[in-house]
Amino acid sequence: MKRRLLIPALLALAVLAAPAFAVAAETIHDTTGPEIASSESGFDGAIVRFEGEVVSEPLFGGQGHVWVNVLSEGTAIGVWLPREMAAELEVFGRYSHTGDIVRVTGRLSEACDEHGGDLDVHAESVELLERGQRREHAVEWWKLGVGLVGLGVAYAGWRRMRRKDEGAEW
Known about the structure:
Blueprint: H1 2-24, E1 28-30, H2 33-37, E2 47-62, E3 65-72, E4 75-82, H3 83-86, E5 97-98, E6 101-109, E7 120-130, E8 133-134, H4 142-167
Parallel strand pairs: 1-2, 4-7
Antiparallel strand pairs: 2-3, 2-6, 3-4, 5-8, 6-7
């Protein structure tokens, strides 16, 4: 009698557990910023993974989250992540610094209902690949010469106009 109940019980368990295995085995799509931003990517609602530089600054996102922009191959993608995940991000890209390089894995929303219909990625993990660094910019002295010549031409034109105005009779 116990054997008769064992087989249906195992079948019922397998049927109930199947959706959990399907979710756990969801495919992660390796992609890039331009592909994510493309309306033809076909990844809406899917788990995506991409790499890029953290730029700008973290923005308050509410509900214990922050917004971070990740620049991937010239396209910035808004990533919504818990503050705890963002805590390891230290250097944000700007003129004077190259930002942290990260690998983001999360669910893509091409038109997120939760965030006003914008394209975003809700991060499930953020992996720091490389710490950002200070960026040096060489001074290009020739630009100073061009600027001074431009100022000289502008001054000469101004002086000429003043002389012309002083000599004019009203």
